[in-house]
């Protein structure tokens, strides 16, 4: 038996959603920004293990949704069947951080339930290499905690660099873990 898990990756345009997916799939990093038009999807077979589950075959299907406002109307189609969302912001772009709650609410509105969310601050390599204003780790962690309390659902926060590959694997593992936990608790399903 293989568990099929669809996850959407959402957030403002230019925050690095496609770069995170490409890095996770082993394609490396492309420094040229290419806008996602509508949506793209990617698939990867993995074996998932954690403290509760051992060697679970998973077919992970990740839908990369365009973040530009002109795609607002078509995004709803691509949410269908998703079990979780990875919400990405650019730690050097406060506007993308300020839009997080809008993305979460759009996802839940389209899914008609509060499915798992993983919050990701991307582009931490830019903070390490330059002295620039950015969303600090403590601020993002506090915001994730506030959202978790407000919506009564655990929203973990991770920081990544798609450019150098830092913590990229962790994001997708955390998303799968969140899906398994959610459906085991809420639906009484055991894996």
Characterise this structure.
It contains 7 helices and 6 strands; from the N terminus they run βαββαβααβααβα. The chain has a single domain, classed as Rossmann fold, CATH 3.40.50. The chain has a 6-stranded mixed β-sheet, sandwiched between helices. A hairpin with a 7-residue loop joins β2 and β3. By secondary structure, it is of the alpha/beta class. The model has no long low-confidence stretch (mean pLDDT 89). It is globular.
Descriptive labels:
single chain, alpha/beta, 7 helices, Rossmann fold, 6-stranded mixed beta sheet, 191 residues, globular, 6 strands
Write the layout of secondary structure elements.
Blueprint: E1 3-10, H1 17-24, E2 39-48, E3 56-65, H2 72-79, E4 84-90, H3 94-98, H4 100-111, E5 117-122, H5 124-129, H6 137-151, E6 157-159, H7 168-187
Parallel strand pairs: 1-3, 1-4, 4-5, 5-6
Antiparallel strand pairs: 2-3
Which H/E pattern describes the elements? EHEEHEHHEHHEH
CA gyration radius, whole angstroms: 16 Å
Instruction: Tell me, rounded to a whole number, the average pLDDT.
Output: 89
Major β-sheet annotation: 6 strands, mixed
Fourth-level CATH superfamily: P-loop containing nucleotide triphosphate hydrolases
Which parts are unreliable, with pLDDT below 50 for 5 consecutive residues or more? none
- Estimate the strand proportion: 15-25%
